Amino acid sequence: METSIKILLAEDDINLGQLLQTFLRSKGFTVSLAKNGKIAFKRFNREQFDFCIFDIMMPEMDGFTLAKEIREIDKKIPILFLSAKSMKEDKLEGFNIGADDYLTKPFQMEELLARINAIMRRVEIKTPKEKAEIMVGSIKYEPEFRMLHLKDEVKKLTTKENQLLQMLVKNKNEILDRHATLRAIWGDDNYFNGRSMDVYIAKLRKTLREDENIEIMNVHGKGFKLVVKE
Hints:
Layout: E1 6-10, H1 14-26, E2 30-34, H2 37-46, E3 51-55, H3 63-73, E4 79-83, H4 88-97, E5 101-104, H5 109-123, E6 134-136, E7 139-142, E8 147-149, E9 154-156, H6 159-170, E10 175-177, H7 178-185, H8 191-208, E11 214-219, E12 223-228
Parallel strand pairs: 1-2, 1-3, 3-4, 4-5
Antiparallel strand pairs: 6-7, 7-8, 8-9, 10-12, 11-12
Helix pairs in contact: 2-3, 6-8
């Protein structure tokens, strides 16, 4: 059976959140509900998601801040904002952050579904089943099993190596922000965690070196870039 689209839903109104979760599940989506932005961000970094729906006004971390953090480490995942306000300034801020759409409360469930389907058609989301194997240059990568299929061996990555490579692949040929990556994987962007990340980057460089078209570049003062020459 084909795996469904997995949605991260952040909504601090528990009743509305559960209502949305139940509705979307009835339409075939897999939905993970978080009651605030901080929980949602931690969950985003532990699991694989295909789509995000964020309420704007939330405790701990609001929807705009959550989206900014996620956009630093994933430029492409679709984000739909929910808001009780219809102010033009809020909509503009949402779109400036990188939102794909904005829905004002109250709304009809069918309208939410229509917006999600429209975004999915635009961005051509692939299901987790279709993404189980990723080609990084000539090297096959299976994120779920933490495996790289090299010429002479199948290499099992450590958890942090795998998390780093997933982020690099998601942002292929684009800059992956150093501090955002540290906060996402290590939980803190302090000096010692930074040194630790540099060691893992060096290990990945060594592993991927067998394909000369793959390079993990240091971008001074910003972060890293996975460059794959076609």
